[in-house]
Amino acid sequence: MLTVKKTKPGNGESQVPNMIAQGTSIVGDLISNGDFRIEGKLKGTITANGRIVIGETGEIEGEMSCKHADISGKVKGNIQVEELTMLKQHAQFEGNINTKQLSVEPGALFSGECQMGKMIKEVDTTNKT
After folding, report:
1. 33: left (phi over 0), alpha (psi -120 to 50) or beta
2. DSSP sequence for 21-77
3. How far, in Å, are 71, 90, 109 from residue 105 at the CA level?
4. What separation in angstroms does the CA of 127 have from each of 23, 27, 30?
5. What is the pLDDT of residues 60-86, one digit of tens each?
6. What is the largest CA-CA distance in the chain?
7. Which of 48, 63, 84, 115 is deepest in the core (most CB within 10 A)?
8. Mean of the per-residue pLDDT values for the chain?
9. For the segment 12-46, what is each residue's pLDDT rounded down to a tens digit?
10. SS3 for 15?
């Protein structure tokens, strides 16, 4: 269920949360100026100016770029996170992480490399088509 969040204009937050619900599969690239929650499946890239949350039923195969990442589901691919990346207890991550900070809870699976500290590239959500 989507709810409308009233915010002051110009604060960078999306007024309606973006979500891929459980049981939904998408193939393609997603770009969002706000936050995004994935409970379904995405094969492609996702770029967001805000937080990307991958729920326990969520799966991504592809690249991910955002300000904050909160991962409880499955991710196979490289991610670039401007601030904090959190791998929750049920997370299954396979790929490389480039982030400022990393938090890995006990039980999370991580296979790949992690580069922390200075970001190589800032998140860019402008559509260049």
Report:
1. alpha
2. -TT-EEES-EEESS-EEESSEEES-EEESSEEEE-TT-EEES-EEESEEEE-SEEES
3. 10, 9, 9
4. 28, 18, 10
5. 999 999 999 999 999 999 999 999 999
6. 42
7. 48
8. 85
9. 444 567 999 999 999 999 999 999 999 999 999 99
10. coil
Tokens at residue 105, please?
A: 């809870």
Going across the sheet that includes 92-94, the strands are: 25-27, 41-43, 59-61, 74-76, 92-94, 109-111
DSSP secondary structure string for all residues of 84-125: EEEE-TT-EEES-EEEEEEEE-TT-EEES-EEESS-SS----
- Nearest 5°: the CA angle 39, 114, 70 is 25
Dihedral angle over CA of 128, 95, 83, 127, nearest 10: 10
